[in-house]
């Protein structure tokens, strides 16, 4: 089955909305949701459409929307990168009239999506070399088509290896608290016909100890200039155990995930999320799994130091240690 | 609050049952269940009570019950140890009449419970020295009063430190798939007034990396003669990450948990459990968190090699590396 695009724009006769896959309903149901009615941020976009009387008002509303969107998630850097790209176009288009201004922004948004898909395919191409025929690959969370414009980063590498005819099997960490691995990654792999097995997050270490994991591939939410990588909570645990067993540990992400302003991962802000995600199992339970009033600590990400990473697979090339130099080189690389 | 005893015998006028805490209902409700109506094994015990016409028939039924009970869980060795102790008494009491025979067995069963509680208190006493005032302790699964006759092994150490007035805080791994940490350990600690925080199993590594864990204390289901320790799945992951950060890793268990017949942990059988425990979150969900027909691997335990263990705290003394010699010494130690 071909996945529907993770993000589609509907133009005015259909209602000026962004159409998304409602990932909270997967794998039970594939539901498309037009986000003019979902989130506050979409409400803001809708309001913007209705209320703007001048380009100045529109720019002001866009700046406000930018700030609201930027505040939703502090750790992942691609969000900021895309918002900056949009704001840059908004600045350039300042002298246009409203319809032209809107058309310019929409075009840029669509280009971001197209570019992202293209980048994921390049990550896949460059990364597949690290996956041997017959490999058992372990992945964490969802760095797949559902987390990108399509194809995925870590899952892009896995998809590309599969497309090359390699017989592979993927260990899928369920990824507590929100279960993105159990719900989303296993679903994507199943759609592609790639063999996979879901495991609790505590099982991977035991598999590594038994020689049943050949490599680990994960995505990234933000990478510092030295290669330190913020990714879903639990990634650091896997990297430490992989090092102990001399198992290669790969990070797959577009170069836009590298935040060259940050010298090391210690500067990456880590999003803290609500205890309820843990206690009510991602909103699926009516009764808490914990006693009332018990403390719960629920960080969304952790940071894996660059020393534990074998390679960072980007759309512009593969960075290998030392990462500071390698990432810098990729940044200023002129591609043919 | 004083916990009700985890296991009580009701004598005939009340119905000849074993009264247990129904742990699947915690922490929502504290429900006592008389197990003549719960499990097959209790059904077998009840049948035994009704049908035995001679001591020979009774002994045969007991042997049958022993086999059924032994088949329930392959990994934990204390079950076999207790069954062996009962069978030994049954053999010794072979010449007695039925009422005397039954009384002898009941007395032995009650002695096992009393002994176990006493052993846990000794483990606590001996282990508390390893817990500093102000310590942040991480524990996994439930090795508490609910997993023993009372007081607990790993939680016995924590309880004893708390009783000595040390100000401690416990990081409680939720312990997927059955959530014994989130449901049971946090509940026990809350009852005792010991500060604790529940975390997903993937969070501990990140806390260790940040210097927020001073030691790890876990229980054990079976320990080989060389100190290799089988415990709840996820224990190995913690031990590897603790080693990386030079954090002491303690195993707390009665010496009866050591299986001196096994040279190493490779010989310990690991129980594989049903995928449904993962998919339906310990039976709490109606809808699976995974896509239909996806493979799930659900081992109940893993083995931590002795090289990763700082000390094994037993009722007869603390074993430190090299464990083969230390455990052997404790085995043949004559206590004053």
What does this structure look like?
- Two copies of one chain form a homodimer.
- Chain A is 37% helix and 17% strand.
- By secondary structure, the first copy, chain A, is of the alpha/beta class.
- Chain A has a domain of 211 residues: 3-Layer(aba) Sandwich (Rossmann fold).
- In chain A, the strands form three sheets. In chain A, strands 6-5-4-7-10-14-15 form a seven-stranded mixed β-sheet, sandwiched between helices. In chain A, strands 11-8-9-13 form a four-stranded mixed β-sheet, covered by helices on one side.
- In chain A, helix 1 runs antiparallel to helix 2 and helix 2 packs antiparallel against helix 3.
- The two termini of chain A are 34 Å apart.
- The mean pLDDT of chain A is 89.
- The interface between A and B is large, with 55 and 54 residues.
How many angstroms does the end-to-end distance of chain A come to? Answer: 34 Å
- Which series of helices and strands of chain A comes N to C? EEEHHHHEHEHEHEEEHEEHEEEEH
Please name the two chains that share the biggest interface, counting residues whose Cβ lies under 8 Å from a Cβ on the partner chain. A-B, 55 and 54 residues
User: For the record, what is the CATH homologous superfamily label of the domain at 121-331 in chain A?
Assistant: Translation initiation factor eif-2b, domain 2
User: Would you count the extended β strands of chain A for me?
Assistant: 15
CATH class of the domain at 121-331 in chain A: Alpha Beta
- What is the makeup of the main sheet of chain A? 7 strands, mixed
Q: State the share of residues found in helices of chain A, binned by percent.
A: 25-40%
| Count of helical regions of chain A | 10
Q: What is the CA-atom radius of gyration of chain A, in angstroms?
A: 20 Å
């Amino acid at each position: 089955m071909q996945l529907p695009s993770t993000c589609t724009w509907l133009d005015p006769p259909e209602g000026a909305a962004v159409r998304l896959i409602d990932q909270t309903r997967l794998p039970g149901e594939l539901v498309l949701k037009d986000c003019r009615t979902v989130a506050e941020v979409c409400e803001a976009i809708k309001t913007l459409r209705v209320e703007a009387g001048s380009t100045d008002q529109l720019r002001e509303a866009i700046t406000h929307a930018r700030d609201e969107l930027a505040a939703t998630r502090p750790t992942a850097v691609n969000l900021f990168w895309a918002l900056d790209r949009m704001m840059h176009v908004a600045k350039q288009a300042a002298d246009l009239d409203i319809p032209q201004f809107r058309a310019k922004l929409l075009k840029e948004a669509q280009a971001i999506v197209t570019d992202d898909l293209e980048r994921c395919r390049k990550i896949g191409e460059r990364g597949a070399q690290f996956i041997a025929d017959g490999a058992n690959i372990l992945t964490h969370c969802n760095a797949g088509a559902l987390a990108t414009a399509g194809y995925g980063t870590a899952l892009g590498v896995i998809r590309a290896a599969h497309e090359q005819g390699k017989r592979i099997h993927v260990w899928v960490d369920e990824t507590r608290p929100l279960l993105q691995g159990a719900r989303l990654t296993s679903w994507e792999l199943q759609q592609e016909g790639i063999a996979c097995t879901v495991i609790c997050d505590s099982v991977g270490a035991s598999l590594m100890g038994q020689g049943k994991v050949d490599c680990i591939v994960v995505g990234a939410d933000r990478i510092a200039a030295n290669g330190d990588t913020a990714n879903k909570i639990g990634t650091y645990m896997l990297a430490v155990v992989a090092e102990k067993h001399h198992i290669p540990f790969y990070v797959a992400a577009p170069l836009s995930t590298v935040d060259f302003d940050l010298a090391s991962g210690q500067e990456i802000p880590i999003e803290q999320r609500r205890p309820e995600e843990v206690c009510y199992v991602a909103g699926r339970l009516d009764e808490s799994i914990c006693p009332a009033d018990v403390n719960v600590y629920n960080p969304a990400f952790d940071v894996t130091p660059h020393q534990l990473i074998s390679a960072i697979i980007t759309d512009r090339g593969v960075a290998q240690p030392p990462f500071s130099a390698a990432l810098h080189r990729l940044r200023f690389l002129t591609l043919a």
